[in-house]
Specification:
Elements lengths: L5 E5 L4 H12 L3 E6 L2 H14 L4 E5 L7 H11 L4 E6 L14 H26 L5 E6 L12 H21 L4 E6 L7 E2 L2 E2 L14 H13 L3 E3 L3 H10 L7 H10 L1
Helix pairs in contact: 1-6, 3-4, 4-5
Length: 259
């Protein structure tokens, strides 16, 4: 990447977003950190400024607000902050019966998980296309490969994101934009931004650390993009679903979701 370019990471104040920010800064990439929570956002920015030689820009913004992505893109352009790499990581999930969950929260999830990504990507693309090296990493989920009762809207948002991202990859290939669609499964919890000890026992191999997912996503970016499902068990699960008649999948997932 050019020295003056930046990697923009949404949802940078925790989890995968924080892991992306650290990994990219360690690779000497300038970073723009985007998050809704100001305190952890600025703590991370201060940490990266102390520990790395890169430029760090921290912007507090709620991307679920209508028009926030376009306003952010205009703010970056007017500030002379070019974006080489966009990491669409911000998002959240809700669990419970559709009729029992708050409608407002479910609509907010749709806006953040889908609408905000489309808006921000669309708004940043014209500037990115002028860059020599440019890439997009969309953080989806294995939840997008099947309908998940009791997380129906969330799994639908991830199905949309995966489909959109894979289509975008082909559209932008000739323009030289590398698009990665990363679909992690369950992530291990973090404490103060650091992953806890590896999960042992019957859950070993199911949970992954954010750092492992980030490493695979960045490896895919370096290798030309495409779809990546981190973790052997996750890959097997996605493949196995193809062998089961589609009408049976929601029933099986519903039983597992209730467990």
């Amino acid at each position: 990447m050019k020295h003056d370019g930046h990697a923009l990471i949404t949802g940078a104040s925790r989890g995968l977003g924080m892991a992306f920010a650290r990994a990219l800064a360690e690779r000497h990439c300038n970073v723009v950190l985007i998050a809704r929570s100001p305190e952890p956002l600025h703590e991370l920015a201060s940490e990266l400024r102390r520990s790395t030689p890169v430029s760090v820009v921290a912007i507090q913004v709620d991307l679920s607000s209508p028009g926030a992505g376009q306003i952010l893109a205009e703010q970056l352009s007017s500030g002379g902050i070019p974006i080489d790499l966009l990491v669409n990581n911000a998002g959240f999930g809700l669990r419970g019966e559709f009729r029992g969950l708050s409608l407002l929260r479910q609509l907010e999830m749709l806006r953040l998980n889908n609408e905000a990504i489309v808006e921000l990507t669309y708004s940043l693309l014209p500037g990115m296309l002028e860059r020599r090296q440019k890439g997009i990493i969309n953080v989806s989920s294995t939840a997008g490969f099947q309908p998940i009762p009791f997380a129906g809207v969330y799994s639908a948002t991830k199905a949309f994101l995966t489909t959109f991202s894979l289509a975008l990859e082909q559209e932008l290939r000739e323009a030289g934009v590398t698009v990665v669609t990363v679909c992690p499964g369950k992530l291990s919890k973090t404490q103060n931004g650091q992953s806890e000890q590896p999960v042992r026992g019957k859950w070993a191999g199911i949970y992954q650390s954010p750092e492992e997912v980030v490493e695979e996503a960045l490896r895919a970016l370096a290798n030309g993009g495409g779809l990546t499902v981190p973790g052997t068990l996750n890959k097997f699960s996605v493949f196995a679903q193809r062998l089961i008649p589609r009408r049976f999948v929601p029933r099986l997932v519903a039983k597992m979701s209730r467990a």
